[in-house]
Design a protein that fits this description.
Blueprint: E1 6-9, E2 12-15, H1 26-30, E3 40-41, E4 44-45, H2 48-61, H3 70-80
Antiparallel strand pairs: 1-2, 3-4
Length: 81
């Protein structure tokens, strides 16, 4: 993997330049979305599980299906960190 920015999209870790999102994506169609920021100190994610829990509460509130379990989200986050 390149030293540049990578992201997790549709079940894969890819380079930023490879990212493509469908015009039929919910965010494009409805203009809604949820995000969560997890701070990183000395290369370590701070309270990741708490941030994922809050993300999933927010997703439920706006009725967005994340497509993965919180455990899978944690693994994907750690894989791209």
């Amino acid at each position: 993997m390149a030293d540049g920015c990578v992201l997790y999209l549709n079940g894969e870790i890819i380079e930023e330049s490879q990212a493509r999102i469908s015009p039929f994506d919910r965010g494009f169609l409805w203009g809604d979305g949820v995000y969560e920021i997890t701070p990183c100190f000395d290369g370590r994610l701070y309270r990741l599980e708490d941030h994922i829990d809050r993300l999933y509460r927010s997703l439920r509130y706006v009725r967005i299906e994340p497509g993965m379990t919180p455990g899978e989200m944690e693994r994907a986050t750690l894989d791209t960190h």
